[in-house]
Amino acid sequence: MHILETIGAFILAIGILVLIHESGHFWVAKFMGVKVLKFSIGFGPALISRRWGKDRTEYVIAALPLGGYVKMLGEQAGEEVMPEDRTRTFEQLAPGKRFLIALAGPAANLLFAIIAYAGVAWIGIPGLAPIVGLVNDHSLAAQAHLQPGQRITSLNGQQVYTWEDMRMGLLSAAIARVPAHLETTEQGRLSTHTLPLQSLKADSVGPDFVGKIIGMEPYLPATVGAVEAKSPAAQAGLVAGDRITGINHHPVPSWESLARHIESHPDKTMEMTYRTAAGISKTIQIKPQMFLDKAGKAIGRIGIVMAPLPKDLIVIRQRGPLEGLIYGAHSTWQMSWMTVEMMVRMVQGFVSPDNISGPISIAEYAGQSAQAGVAPFLSFLALVSISLGVLNLLPIPILDGGHLVFYALEMVRGKPLSPAVVQKAQQIGIVLLLMLMSFAFYNDITRLMTP
Known about the structure:
Pfam family, one: PDZ_6
Mean pLDDT: 89
Number of domains: 4
Radius of gyration: 27 Å
Largest sheet: 4 strands, antiparallel
Cofactor: Zn(2+)
Shape: elongated
Transmembrane segments: 6-28, 99-125, 377-409, 421-442
Number of helices: 12
Keywords: Hydrolase, Membrane, Metal-binding, Metalloprotease, Protease, Transmembrane, Transmembrane helix, Zinc
Number of strands: 18
Strand content: 15-25%
């Protein structure tokens, strides 16, 4: 059922985004007076096909959902055109108008992202409170004197409401290679901290950037939610509601800290202190069972799961109609700029190419966000729509950006490029696109195989 839900969410998401993109081309072409022959969501054999309108445009839902296209009269050289339709062909348009038709697809994706992010702002999306739960020794966070229990309130002058706000702010600062100035509070005390992100090594920005590079994790209470039968935890007397406070005389500030202590002590007896739901402090001896992770490394497990987060750690912020639209526009601009900057930094070798995701990862994120609710799914759609819009604006032949270059050159030269040059450029574009897709698939498969 989970796999089916993931596939269903993926097809729904891709279908919506392709529909938005192709609708941009479609409506601007119609506005310019071009006759549209076919509007297809997907490629390959048609699952559903209907003809509507005075032009008898064919609307198709095809078998392969990874894309779509709008076929316009006169778009292909040598195409037969009836005398009454000669003024309605794509090729007879001025290059400036063809430029606008090509631009309309990516523009529609960015406009949709603004509306989707505005919807997220109006609905409100739950987020984890930006409280530091764990700081790794000798990490950037430790060098900046960040401490467990501190709540991050602002980053480079921008207010921080959730851990995701903080994560995206740090990622943006790292990509731009500027320091991150954090303000925190703890028990009424204000503190400032500076992370020298401008001095990070090349290829530093990648998956789990905050945990691995910055060296800190969010605060998740080390409270037991459930205990597996016959596990070391059950045999030691732990029950749901117990709060772990220490291991081997070391304090346990968060669930992440607890997990690391347990995983690093396979088959070794530990002294654990905890407080029961009734407030009684206890100390026990417990020996984690040894398991092998996907990489073959020995790790410890005691058979407990984390309790649901208390309400005071969940932050939900809703915005009004106008404020939501402003948020949508700002978020779309910020994510678009970050996407472009990340591509540039990737070429320079500063950002890890592991950040490139393919259909498998997108499908996983689609399923997870759909299960989380309407607002998370809208946020996911906005992010992928921005990626689709920006990617299509790249000056690669076969993509919209490549066509924009062709039409711009035609406007400058006063005549179109020769068919042979266009064909050769498109062949190069296909090769580049296949290389990018292959690398994205490689990253997806590597992630699946990595513990």
